[in-house]
Amino acid sequence: MQNPYFITFEIIAYALSALCFVHAFKNGTGNVLRLLAGILFGLLLELATIRQLNAYEYGIFPVMVLDVPLCIGVSWGSILYSAMEFSDASTLLYFLRPALDGLLALNIDLAMDTIAIRLGMWDWGQGLEFQYFGVPYANFWAWFWVISSFSFGYRLLARRKDRLAAWLSPMLALLAGLAWVLATNWFISFKIPFEYHGLVVLLLLAGALGMILACRPRFYQLSAPLLVFWIPFISHLYFLVAGLVSGVILEPPFLLGVSLFMFIVALVLHRPSIETILVKFKSS
C-alpha cells in the first residue's frame, strides 16, 4: 500500500505545476520552455547528484524516473518558475535576482526537509540528530545554488525579446545550472573540511541576504501572478499539516517553530497577493 503522505505530496506537486503551465501558456513560448527546462533540470540534477555524492535516497513514490520521483523534478520546476516570477516583479537589480530566487526556495526547504525525512520521503542516512535535525548543512548550500544557477543562466539572454533568446535561454539555464550545481556539490563535499560546512553555508546565505537587503528592493512593483503566492503557501501548508497529523513536527517541537516562522515570512512577502485574493473572494 502506498504511503498516503507520498501520494498527497505527488498530487499537490502536479497541481501546482499545472498552475504554472496555465500561466506559461498564456504568456508565450519562452515561459513554457522555461518551465519545461526547470522540470527537466530538476530531474537531471537529482539523478546526477545521487550518483555524484551517494548522500541520500528517495522513498518509492507512485511515479519514479529511475530512483528519483517524477514529482520532485516537477516541484523543482514550479519553485523555479514562481521564484523567478516573483523576483522579476521587484526592483532588485536584474543580475541579483538569482540570489533572491535561491533564498525564496530556502524559505520552503527550511520548513520542508526536516518533516519530509521524518515522513520517509527521502533519507540522508545519517539519523535524525545529524546537523540540522537530520539534514546536512550542505543541503541548504545545494538548494541555494540549484535555484540561483538556473535563474542566472536563464537571465543571461532572457532580456533579449526575440525568438532566439526564447529558445536559447532555457537551454542555457539547464546547462549552466547543471554544471554549476555539480561543481558546487563537489566543492563543498570534497574541498571544504566537514567541520566547516555549517560556517560556509551560513556565510553564503548571510552574504546573499545582506547583499539583497543592502539594495532595499521593493516587491510587487510589477504585476505578479498569484502562483508566486500559491506555490510557497501550499507547500508550507502541506508540510505543516502533514507534520502535525503525523506528529513528526514535534520531534523536536523546535521544528514546529521553524515551520511557523517560515510560513509567516512567506505570508509577509506575499501580502499583496493575499489582499488580491481576499478582494476577489469578497466580490464573488
Describe this entry's structure for a reader:
This protein has about 280 residues and is mostly helical. The chain contains 10 helices and 4 strands, in the order H-H-E-E-E-H-H-E-H-H-H-H-H-H. It has one domain. It has a two-stranded antiparallel sheet. A two-stranded antiparallel sheet has the order 2-3. A hairpin with a 2-residue loop joins strand 2 and strand 3. Helix 1 runs antiparallel to helix 8 and helix 8 packs antiparallel against helix 9. The N and C termini lie far apart (about 40 Å).
Q: What can be said about this structure in brief?
A:
The protein has one domain (4-283). Helices cover 73% and strands 3% of the residues. It contains ten helices and four strands; from the N terminus they run ααβββααβαααααα.
